[in-house]
Structure prediction request, 263 residues.
Amino acid sequence: MELKILHDKATIFNFLKSNPEVQLYCIGDLDDFFWPGTIWYALIEHDEIKSLALLYTGQETPTFLLFCKEESEYSAQLISKARGYLPQFFNAHLSEGLKEGFGNQNILRYYGKGYKMVLCRKVEDPCDPAIRRLSVSDLDQINVLLVEAYPENWFDGRMLETGKYMGYFIDGRLAGISGIHVYSPEYKVAALGNIATHSAFRGRQIAFKLTNALCHDLQKDVSLIGLNVRCDNEPAINCYKKAGFEIAGSYDECFIRNDRELK
Prediction:
């Protein structure tokens, strides 16, 4: 077994597409919008990829993503071989059972388990006049809403350039938002993110309506839509199930100190 850094999108995609529901975020990061911030580590045996991991460096703290279906033994080997190349600190999304490969003493923060959910039906447009597409001109209102309603959320304002953010307005005030973390018309995938409702307007099914509106729009040019959600966030899970999402897998989210000597 040897560790290689891959640079060919077609080779990477050929591996990821065998488990697209779980690998959706990684597939989306092949898009030109995200690609410059990616480093792909592969465990190779006889020219065959046995496990593949992504280090996404497009944000202040890098994120390491490694998901597996039946190749967990290979994924554990990949972690062992790749640690010398990884940064000193990073966030990680890992299939269950893999975080121990970094050593329990190096899990500085454990954020909990999350579900990967995928949309399993066509979505109708809610046709609600309170919903409109958001743009960069709405950035100030978006930041205010997210600070008040979802302060731990990660938001990249560049994503507004995709045109795939929806807002729910009440008396001119932004009451709710739905957006994306990943969007690739080329690879036909999207991952929802930044879904939040201001506490003053909860109980009106705003998140459900916004999710439907966004998914209806996304289904015009992508074939696979997914999202990540904390396992203990029952209101959100119920909302997404009502919208047509089903659980496709689970993962651990944590912040890791890499105590191995860097290459």
User: Anything to note?
Assistant: The domain at 2-114+251-257 is CATH 3.40.630.30 (Aminopeptidase). The first helix runs from residue 9 to 16.
